[in-house]
């Protein structure tokens, strides 16, 4: 009897692991989540023409002030002309005058910005100091705000230079009375927390003003000695002398019958 050769059966195809899976159809009743494209997100309203012009004007004004700051630091107030400032800014002198009426007005803007930063440092020190009207808290606030004033100029000597550019001898030059008063108001604001602490400790307004004036003069003198390097001839540190003066001030307040 002849043998039959078995016919091979076809094998089922194996799934290819590298093949991409077939897309699944969403089941009925289920929503398909779709990502929101960037174009579908709400956009901020565009600036008006007036707002765009103001932004551009503010940027150009800041650019002029940056150029003026560099010119003043390198050449001094007398050596830095409007033409020099314009050249550094990449503008014509006429363009500078469209933002500032004079070189002194440029200086006043720079000094005003510097005094704003000074006031921010002093205000932060007052906020971080202990609150309340207890003598110890008032003394801590006095020390903290006076130290913030000193540290601002010790850490930023160019801001100290900026404060002296308009003085030759003992007379301020170049500022209008309005600008001069505006800058003085900003400076007094940085000294006001010390005066308020002294008055809260029992000093009269007249006594507190006298003490703050002496403190300001002492701080400026030490900063100038430190900035110019003259303090080295005494083999002393300006900060050590400043802290000693603060301790003497607190002692004077205590000698007037206020427990500190």
From TrEMBL:
Residues 49-59 have a biased composition (Basic and acidic residues). Residues 58-118 form the HTH tetR-type domain. Residues 81-100 bind DNA. Residues 13-23 have a biased composition (Low complexity). Residues 1-59 are annotated as: Disordered. It holds the Pfam family TetR_N. Keywords: DNA-binding, Transcription, Transcription regulation. InterPro entries: Homeodomain-like_sf, HTH-type_TetR-like_transc_reg, HTH_TetR, Tet_transcr_reg_TetR-rel_C_sf. This is TetR/AcrR family transcriptional regulator. It comes from Ottowia flava. The lineage of its organism: Bacteria, Pseudomonadati, Pseudomonadota, Betaproteobacteria, Burkholderiales.
């Amino acid at each position: 009897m002849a043998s039959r050769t078995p016919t091979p059966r076809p094998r089922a195809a194996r799934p290819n692991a590298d093949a991409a899976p077939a897309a699944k159809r969403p089941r009925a009743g289920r929503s398909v989540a779709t990502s929101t494209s960037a174009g579908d997100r709400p956009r901020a309203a565009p600036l008006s023409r007036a707002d765009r012009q103001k932004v551009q004007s503010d940027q150009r004004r800041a650019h002029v002030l940056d150029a003026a700051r560099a010119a003043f630091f390198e050449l001094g107030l007398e050596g830095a002309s409007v033409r020099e400032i314009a050249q550094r800014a990449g503008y014509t002198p006429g363009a500078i005058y469209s933002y500032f009426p004079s070189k002194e007005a440029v200086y006043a803007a720079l000094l005003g910005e510097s005094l704003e930063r000074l006031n921010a440092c002093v205000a932060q020190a007052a906020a971080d100091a202990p609150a309340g009207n207890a003598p110890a808290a008032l003394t801590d606030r006095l020390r903290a705000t006076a130290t913030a004033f000193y540290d601002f100029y010790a850490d930023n000597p160019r801001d100290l230079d900026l404060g002296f550019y308009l003085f030759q001898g003992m007379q301020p030059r170049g500022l209008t009375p309005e600008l001069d008063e505006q800058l003085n108001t900003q400076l007094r604001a940085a000294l006001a927390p010390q005066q308020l602490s002294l008055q809260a400790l029992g000093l009269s307004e007249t006594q507190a003003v006298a003490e703050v004036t002496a403190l300001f003069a002492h701080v400026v003198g030490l900063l100038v000695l430190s900035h110019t390097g003259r303090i080295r001839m005494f083999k002393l540190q300006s900060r050590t002398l400043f802290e000693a003066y603060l301790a003497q001030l607190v002692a004077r307040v205590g000698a007037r019958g206020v427990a500190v």
